[in-house]
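Bumping with the actual sequence this time:
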Amino acid sequence: MRYDDRLLTLLSQPLPDNSARAALWAQLVDLAAQPGPSADAEGRAGLLDAIDELQPFVPVEKRAQVSRAVARKATGAAAVEALGRDSVSVAAPVLAVAHLPEADWLAIIPALPIASRALLRERRDLPASAMQMLSGFGSSDFALPGLAGEAEPLLAGTTPIGEMVARIEAFQRQRASTPLPLIADLPVPSDHAEGFRFETDRDGMICWVDGVERGAMIGLSLSELAIPGMFGVDGHAAGAFRQRAGFVDARLVVGGQGKAAGNWLIRGEPRFNADDGRFLGYRGIGRRPLSAEHLNTPPQGGTGLGNSGDSMRQLAHELRTPLNAIAGFAQMIDQQYLGPAGHAYRERARAILVDTAQLSHMIESADISSQLDAGKISRDFLASTDLASVMERIAQEFEPLTERQGVNLRIFLNPGLPRVSVAAENCHRMLARLIACLLDYAVADEVITARAAHGPLGIAFSIDRPALLKGISDAALFERGAVQEVRAVRQSGLGLAFSLRLVERLAAATGARLTGSPAQLTLILPPTQDSARQVEGG
């Protein structure tokens, strides 16, 4: 008799950083796909708990990649359940091909989310009992939200269809009495015959639509770039989703023959939980493009680009679309999604990915600068952001960069930091750009330390200057061309002076302040009013 200690061996590994957590998550999923602990009820429960606990530390792209790899081989029930409970892009590869005994399907299906059960309904090779169980969930999976016990009393003898009609009417009355709050400056255009409002879930999938037929829109995703010639969104929307940023006039192509089919321009703003800063999804509108805005139809009378911020945003959008397409195909070559690729081709694809990331950073910086010029970025006194969650996101984003460059970036946050009165996206923009422009001057094996702590004027985020920049005056850092004797180790943006001045302008617009010392740069963020009173009260 042998004792299977693979799970205990994996869980005993040290986890010094998020890379180690991501690696352990992949190992646990691979273990779940094999015979062993998944066959034992207690071991399977422990395995699933460990996978769920590590999941937040693994980017969704990495989880989807592991799911595709697991789907190529015989998959254990524990792996199907663990990946099936994940987002749609992670669950789909496994749920589309998994073959399990009838008993396993009956045990797994109740634990799956609505989107995963919807994927399984499309299969025609599941056991009859599993399909029967899926059909039994229809009443809850497709129920109208917020109407439990709220439909008006029905007459005796009302048919199920009549009951559903009554519930739909009650839902419409409730929606009309409490209209969905929309983006204040994005009303549905009145000069177009067709327009719609929409909401997405946190995976970017459209889950609510008003103004057009629902069947054509529900289920479309903002998170994935449409393959050329297919239906979906362009790189502007997909890129904004990855950064949890707002977008304007992104392209959406809807298939079919209905009124919703064809080209749309959509706008959206991200929504975050006010308590913990978690991303909730997007809310926005769509409209038909004007004649001059159709693809491959240039505006009449010159380029159509003036000096306004809107023109700059339109130019940034037009640049992002092909840039994201190039990055997407380079990633497909690097990850060998289209089949085996030679080492030289993959190295070239990685170089293209680095170049496109740098160009994307430059385009976004120019876009933010134009928004500042137009006064579209200002302080939101009601904003309340958890700095720890923003810094965790930044640490995950910079981890591949620092590993590739051999630079050690260490971030420390004092415990009990109050929330800051800066919108989460603006807070991320300032901190990420400040870190990025300094890392350009860091050499291999150099340690750059950043720390957030209470300060007399607010929450002080301080980051070390690289050795190449220590001792240079603040005036020289902020003046274009003044730092001529120091050359960046790498260049990922529009230059040190431009980046620092952009951070300085963002800080001034949002109520923060950028200061310097010979060894550090410090960004002072205003705390929320409640947090400030708590700090003053000790």
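The tokens above came from a reply further down the thread. The longest helix spans residues 343-373.
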